[in-house]
Amino acid sequence: MCNVSVITIFKRRHKKVKECLNSLINQTLPNTEIICIYKEENSDIDRFVKETQEKYNNIKIIYKTKAQDVTAKNKALEEAQGKYILVMNGDMCLEKTTLEKLYNVQERNDTDIAICGFNIIDINTNQLIHEGLNNKFKEVEEINGKNENFAYLNLDGGNKLIKKEIARNIKFQNYDECQDEIFILSCYSKANKISFINEQLYYKYEDNSNKNLKNQVQIKDLKDGLVEVKKLYKDAGKYEKLKNMLTFIAFTRIGMRALIELTVTKNGDLKDNIRDVMNYLDINFFEWRKNPFLKLKNVPRKKYWIAYTMYKYGFQQLFIKIYSKPIEKGNKLLII
Question: Is 57 helix (H, G, I), strand (E, B) or coil?
């Protein structure tokens, strides 16, 4: 057994593969393993990983086919030797002390997950888009739904160290382009306590332009995945505690962002899309209408409250038209 296993998937579209792997091999925490997943025919990636592997004996490779993301990730979970798991991709990087600090806080507090602060950076301009945690959490927090800041956490795996037995129990599910988000939310169903480090130790590089909008299939997968997470919470007896968090995520990701993405990409009629989304929310996450996490005094950005108010009173079309205009012109997608 080793201290930590990092599972990272590399794809041709990722622009920070070298920076990602270099950030992992330079970690200060000893006794770690790095499991790299990618398609063998990605010759540039394969060449770089193998050259690095010759210098470091803690790198493993799992090849995948186009349709094997989930299979390869779950194989990596089964083969992982680490006490803890961290999942990331080729557009994410870690500070050199990230794993050491996450590991130490896990060991010190005996928690199920450890989370550090993060920076999200526009990959096209290198500008900072968003940062967290901004001292909104105590070092140890129970997952009891009382801290509204859980709803505003990023859903990436790169800043979250998870006990291996929890990760193996949950496994990855076949949801296109939102596998990690659904995986992280699902892990909360098996966790009771989380350690937090209020330092920005993780960097995610994101294409935040209108070239990176979800399509109908990806949005459907996200909708299905959130419903599956709700079922997991109910089965674990945690839904009543976590419903405000999950409902906030459903409202902002589906009600706000997905509707705007469908509008900008001209996928379907606006009225039909609004009707479909509102039916989805009211059937699966009806608590959104009285969610305290969406009140003005609680939201991290006023646009959430504006959307919430306009949606409640039937002005969804107006909200969508206002917020889709700058995105149609090629400006950054800063809705979430």
Answer: coil
